[in-house]
From TrEMBL:
It comes from the Bacteria. Pathway: Lipid metabolism; fatty acid biosynthesis. Involved in the type II fatty acid elongation cycle. Catalyzes the elongation of a wide range of acyl-ACP by the addition of two carbons from malonyl-ACP to an acyl acceptor. Can efficiently catalyze the conversion of palmitoleoyl-ACP (cis-hexadec-9-enoyl-ACP) to cis-vaccenoyl-ACP (cis-octadec-11-enoyl-ACP), an essential step in the thermal regulation of fatty acid composition. Its EC number is 2.3.1.179. Belongs to the thiolase-like superfamily. Beta-ketoacyl-ACP synthases family. It catalyses: a fatty acyl-[ACP] + malonyl-[ACP] + H(+) = a 3-oxoacyl-[ACP] + holo-[ACP] + CO2; (9Z)-hexadecenoyl-[ACP] + malonyl-[ACP] + H(+) = 3-oxo-(11Z)-octadecenoyl-[ACP] + holo-[ACP] + CO2. Coiled coil: none annotated. GO terms for molecular function: 3-oxoacyl-[acyl-carrier-protein] synthase activity. Keywords: Acyltransferase, Fatty acid biosynthesis, Fatty acid metabolism, Lipid biosynthesis, Lipid metabolism, Transferase. It is an enzyme of class 2 (transferase). This is 3-oxoacyl-[acyl-carrier-protein] synthase 2.
Length: 417
């Protein structure tokens, strides 16, 4: 049997679009992160008085009409609106003119871990109170996970691969990684990749709280998300989106694009252990980082900064710390932080938001800080970037994402000369 060998193309990042609890816009979000500003406050999207957890990282003052025709707003849920807006920002950032592109060579790989939760809750209430005739004709297309990718493709005329990951809190990282693979194989020239999430809803917050997954530090919301702090008591739900424009290097150079970073490593695996907890030894996390390093063809000593998944849960943070300690034991120059301390946990959107922040860290040669750490978990034996950003000389950065079901991903970005 003949084996067809396909030359792998190099893939670069030319645009980043971010919407988060700390800012609407890429540079706005990045500036807030470098300032250590928290986006976590008391929930305003619904009345949380009866909920154990009353805090979240909401996107403040988001105006969907700035990105979507008013007549179409009712056809999209909040996570789709975030993804559409972030994609528009990323395309503008990349100075990508779709009129100049072959639409069949531009694809979209954008997902969501949960989908349109607020639409599902609203339409279920209408069904129960008013009967089937009260359910919106836009219910399905406003709520299902792949409609973020669908809507983005429609708006930009992207007729290439159109795909969606829905892999819990690893969604955004998987979407970027799988788009990277599509470009490597030569199946497209450009991919818009990432994820959006909007799960600050009564049912979502109640469900995560029932699992004892959420922080209940309701009187001190800005300090509630505290990765690797010995007093952490759970994560804080956030919302938003992160979308990257990925291109083959050849295509980016041909249009004289400004290149922010090269994506050089990606790996995905599974723990096969538990639905919502990693093994204590962090074995799956360790292996996915090792696989990503192997994919990039570099060693652990080459990574200067790691944007950790670290959500502020006791078990998850400790398992990741154990894995980082094992993989990077010979790299004393590694700096680590978790920007979830400021944004909260965007669930499906976390991986792509943090991938975008990692690219910006590489661009500006600065490691973003982590806030709220008062007493460090003894499992951390590596340097953490605390309170203030740290200047660095870096060629490579890594971004980790892990999700329910034991799904893991790791991405590696390289600075372009």
């Amino acid at each position: 049997m003949q084996v067809r060998l396909v030359e792998q193309r190099r893939v670069v990042v030319t645009g980043v679009g971010l919407i988060s609890p700390v800012g609407i816009g890429t540079e706005e979000t990045w500036a807030a992160i470098l300032q250590g500003r928290s986006g976590i406050e008391k929930i305003t999207l619904f009345d949380p008085r009866d909920h154990a957890c009353k805090i979240a990282g909401e996107v403040k003052d988001f105006r969907p009409e700035a990105f979507i025709d008013r007549k179409d707003i009712k056809k999209t849920s909040r996570f789709i609106q975030f993804a559409i807006a972030a994609a528009e920002m990323a395309v503008r950032h990349a100075k990508l003119a779709m009129a100049d592109e072959d639409p069949h060579r531009v694809g979209v790989h954008v997902g969501s871990g949960i989908g349109g939760f607020e639409v599902i809750e609203r339409e279920h209430t209408r069904l129960m109170e008013g009967g089937p005739g009260r359910v919106s004709p836009f219910f399905i297309t406003a709520s299902i996970a792949n409609l973020a990718a669908g809507q983005i493709a429609i708006r930009h005329g992207a007729r290439g691969p159109n795909l969606t990951c829905a892999t819990a809190c690893t969604t955004g990282a998987h979407d970027i990684g799988e788009a990277f693979r599509i470009l490597q194989r030569g199946e497209a020239d450009v991919m818009l990749a990432g994820a959006g999430e909007a799960a600050v809803t009564p049912l979502s917050i109640a469900g995560f709280a029932a699992m004892k997954a959420l922080s209940t530090r309701n009187e001190d919301p800005e300090c509630a998300s505290r990765p690797w702090d010995i007093g952490r008591d759970g994560f804080v739900t956030g919302e938003g989106a992160g979308i990257l424009v990925l291109e083959t290097l050849e295509h980016a150079q041909a249009r004289n694009a400004s290149i922010l970073a090269e994506i050089v490593g990606y790996a995905a695996n599974g723990d096969a252990f538990h639905t919502n907890a990693p093994p204590e030894d962090g074995s799956g996390i360790r292996r996915v980082m090792e696989l990503a390093l192997a994919d990039a063809g570099i060693s652990a000593s080459d990574i200067a900064y790691l944007n950790a998944h670290a959500t502020s849960t006791p078990l998850g943070d400790r398992a990741e710390a154990t894995a980082i300690r094992q993989v990077f034991s010979a790299n004393p120059d590694l700096w680590v932080s978790s920007t979830k301390s400021m944004t909260g946990h965007l669930l499906g959107g976390a991986g792509s938001l943090e991938a975008g922040l990692s690219v910006l860290a590489l661009r500006d040669q600065v490691a973003p800080p982590m806030t709220n750490l008062e007493t460090e978990d003894p499992a951390c034996t590596f340097p953490l970037v605390l309170s203030q950003p740290r200047a660095m000389e870096s060629r490579y950065v890594m971004s980790n994402s892990f999700g329910f079901g034991g799904t893991n991903a790791s991405l590696i970005f390289k600075r372009m000369p």
